[in-house]
Amino acid sequence: MLATPHRPRLAVWKFASCDGCQLSILDLEDELLALAGRIEIANFREASSAVLDGPYDLSLVEGSITTREDAKRIREVRAQSKVLVTIGACATAGGIQALRNFANIDEFRRAVYARPEYIETLATSTPIADHVPVDHELRGCPISKSQLLEMVGAFLQERAPNTPNESVCIECKRRGNVCVLVARGTPCLGPVTQAGCGAICPAFSRGCYGCFGPQGSPNVASMLTELHRLGMTAPEVRRVFRTFNAGAPAFRTASEFAVEATDAKEGAP
Amino acid sequence: MVELGVGGRGILPRREFPRLLEAITASGYEIVGPTVREGAIVYDRLRGVDDLPIGWTDRQEGGQYRLERRGDEALFGYTVGPYTWKKFLFPARERLFTARREGDSFVVIPEPTDGPKLALFGMRACELAGLDITDTVFQGGPTPDPGYRARRGRILRVAVQCGQAGGTCFCVSMGTGPGVRGGADLVVTEILSPGEHRFRLDIGSEEGARVVRGLASVLAPVPPEDDARVEAIVARTAASMGRTMESRGLRDLLRETLDHPRWQHVANRCLSCTNCTMVCPTCFCSTHEEVPDLNAETVERWRRWDSCFNLGFSELHGVSVRKSGLSRYRQWLTHKLGTWHDQFGSSGCVGCGRCITWCPVAIDLTEEVAALRQPATPSAPPGGNR
Description:
The structure holds 2 protein chains of 2 kinds.
Chain A: E1 9-14, H1 20-26, H2 29-38, E2 40-44, E3 56-62, H3 68-79, E4 81-87, H4 89-93, H5 105-112, E5 136-138, H6 145-156, H7 168-175, H8 180-184, H9 200-203, H10 220-229, H11 234-241, H12 249-266
Parallel strand pairs in A: 1-2, 1-3, 3-4, 4-5
Helix pairs in contact in A: 11-12
Chain B: E1 9-13, H1 17-26, E2 29-37, E3 40-45, E4 56-61, E5 64-69, H2 86-89, E6 93-102, E7 105-110, E8 117-123, H3 125-139, H4 146-152, E9 155-160, H5 171-174, E10 186-193, E11 196-203, H6 206-212, H7 224-239, H8 250-256, H9 262-269, H10 275-279, E12 286-292, E13 298-305, E14 315-316, E15 319-320, H11 325-344, H12 354-357, H13 365-373
Parallel strand pairs in B: 2-8, 8-9, 9-10
Antiparallel strand pairs in B: 1-11, 2-3, 4-5, 6-7, 6-13, 10-11, 12-13, 14-15
Helix pairs in contact in B: 8-11, 9-11
């Protein structure tokens, strides 16, 4: 009898998140069977309740850290994982829930829950890399299927994944889109946002809203000036930078700068 | 009787203009040319004259492009849009070859270089100059690019002399236009005023003559007053350039101003978004990626447009050697206007103005060059002329 060739063992983990990025894995429909032939899906609760114990060769981590338990659990995940890859805006930047980082968590807790004392949570939502070393990250809300496939393929072939940190603009131009910012005056975060989505939003004549987070060398100061020139007010600018990647350092800087501009204008202290 | 050989010319009435496109199609060419899409004039497949931006014009300034209706039915009453013809010769993404594992070795399956014959319909003088430059880049050296060479060998160049200049045009400064001086198979000039609409058609090559040989019955001899009109149209366009740039001595200037404070000034505005390089008719940088299947049995090598504004572009041993926006902008401009001369024997700029229009923050190389010509002062002058 032939020995079964060793298949690397995959685990998929969920922290504070919406599960959308995990669904992107299941959404690989055409490639999923081929993938399962090359990799043993050992722990993926979104797909199967059959869970095999670690250690794992590759861990995909979705979600951010928002509780003390999760801060502990991610260390356990790291300890059981040879390679750890964060997937999506929550895991790489803290997600939309990182809006709490700019506000008072107790106020949120009281506003949302009938019995706030039942809720135990951290005051911040932080990316996985703030807690454990991360080997690679996939951006996006949700992640791109083709980047996911590229990353898993690169892991299997022991090479670096090809996920460039260039801007969305270059994808727009390769795709043949007309620039919505220049031709329509539509505010667009494409120039400061990392490529990977395939420039979907501008292809439908709307501005990029930055769901892949900051590109490799974002000039947010110049982008802020430009957004104001296009007619956006400081609160509006703050808002566009405070979405799924609000906690990414460059976008956080941009939104805080816009807040200061708003406060200065309104004469706030 | 109109002489339809090389150097021949004739007048084509507007109502007969569709015959020109029909003749091109009948000669085996697919026609690509200007057409309105997504609020701009882009180069795409043309099925007939009605696909042209009839009655449209464009208003261009730094960081701004708007389509507007004209008061007439001009076929070519606009300047250049965001895309250049280079996408037909040097595609944004191109598979170069496939390699397949065979035992302990592999076989290389070359990529076919066949494809349709393309008529590039509506090339402007600056774009013909751009084509000359990409010809030098891709096939001027000892190892011509096979894909480019194959596609280049299948094109028909149908030029249009510009009847108006755009807000960011400066072809006069670069000596490339607006009049067409060779390099085209056919040249069209639109003569349009209330009550009259016709075209002067000039034959620039044997292939151009072959394409239009069936048009003898609809072409009229060119009266001297129409030659004067055409001359006046080109002269008027030349006199209304939106921008000027002193191009003399640029190579030396850029070599001597590498530490000028203006570089930091422009870097503060530059988004490193790559738009200027993407819209440039001569920017040719690319990167290669190997795309294996999951089992690594076959691997495809792809080439895609890249840009010197990307950190990864200058990555050596995993580290980018041009980390700052300053070093990247300076690399682009000094190459485009300076070291391009050393590398390819000409400037890399044709004065089309696309990099000015399509820069989201309106960085204007003509303004940057003017500033670099000023002696360095401790505080750089304010920028942004919009």
